[in-house]
Amino acid sequence: MEEKATLIGSLFEKTEDYAKSSIDLLKLKALDKSTSAITSFASIFVILISTLFIIMMISVGAAIWISKLMDNSYSGFFIVALFYAVLSVVLYVFRDEIIKTPISNRIITHIRKEKQI
C-alpha cells in the first residue's frame, strides 16, 4: 500500500514539475516574442525618424527651388504644401488598404513566426 502511495506521490511531483516547466516555457516564449517585437519596432522607429528628416530637407529644398523657378519667394512652399495636402487626403481615403492592413499583417506574421534553433 505504501508503495502505491509513493508512486502516486512521485506522479504528482512529476506532474507538478511538468506544469511549472510548461508555465516557465510559456513565459519565456512570451518574453522572446515581446522583446523581438519591441526591438523590431524600435529599429523601425529610428529608420522612420531619419527618413522623415530626409523628406523634410528634400521638401524645403524643393520649395526653395520651385520658388526660384517661379520668381516668387513663397509659391514653392505653397506648391509643396499642396502636394502634401493631396498626399494626406489620398492616404486618409485609402488608409485601410495602404496603412492598416499591411501593418496588421506584419505584426501578426512577426508574432506568429517561430524561431528555428
Protein model, in words:
The protein is mainly alpha-helical. It has one domain. It contains 3 helices and no strands. The longest helix has 68 residues, at 2-69. The two termini are 46 Å apart. The model has no long low-confidence stretch (mean pLDDT 87).
Task: Give Rg in angstroms.
Answer: 28 Å
What is the H-and-E element order?
HHH
What is the share of helical residues? Answer: over 70%
The largest β sheet comes out as: none
* Average pLDDT over all residues: 87
**Would you tell me the structural class of the helices and strands?**
mainly alpha
Number of helices: 3
Distance between the termini: 46 Å
Our count of domains comes out at 1
What is the approximate shape? Answer: rod-shaped
Strand content: under 5%
State the total count of DSSP E strands: 0
Low-pLDDT runs of 5+ residues are none
Summarize the structure.
The chain is mainly alpha-helical and 117 residues long.
Descriptors:
single chain; 117 residues; mainly alpha; 3 helices; rod-shaped
SSE blueprint:
Blueprint: H1 2-69, H2 75-93, H3 95-112
Helix pairs in contact: 1-2, 2-3
